[in-house]
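Journal club prep, notes for RB
We'll compare a predicted complex against what the paper describes. Inputs for the 5-O-phosphono-beta-D-ribofuranosylamine case:
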Amino acid sequence: MPKSPIRIVILVGTHGRGSNMMNLIDACREGEIPGQVVGVISPSSESPALLRAASAGVATLVVPAGDRHSERLLEGIQSFDPDLITLAGYMKRLDEAIVGKYPGRIMNIHPALIPSFCGKGMYGHHVHEAVLEAGVRYSGCTVHFVDEGYDTGPIILQTVVPVEQDDTPDTLAARVLQQEHATYRQAVKLFAEGRLQIVGHRVRILPA
Ligand code: GRF
């Protein structure tokens, strides 16, 4: 059982809007998640998400790409002493040194139903374009634990969203994004309550 309230660090991308990040910050402040977002890390000081975090009064840290990136990222993460690391629009794969340091304590959200429409290169509008091209009737979002692969870690929660006849990648992305926010809150809340147990590649949700 993690100590409560848990300390959460959020990793955002260079071009991230930060809607999932803000959603988690708000859920903690509203008391829905027994946690606190103690820091937001981005590869760029220009990242819209990072600027939003700073104006919301959350500590921010920039760890630019380049030499010893992974090592510096690990140092940055450790400086916040987190219980949980959440990725919200962070595009890079985390290397073994980071994943190995926080087993079962790193989460990501993906805007499709894993194991479909995921993996290397499947991010942002690419995902929704591929979904529409495939002609599937349903898409959705997935919150999963992070391992060394691309979108391959144990699945925590999924929410299904219908694909409408006249959808464009943008309309589908907007419908999925709404569910991303609700699903990510729920997954982080379950973690903070100590109710997620990884068994093999499956995640058991323990009763309250
Ligand atoms: C979301 O669609 C998320 O699923 C994906 O990146 C996007 C980030 O959006 N990993 P935002 O910056 O949280 O608004």
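Talking point for the session: The longest strand covers residues 35-42.
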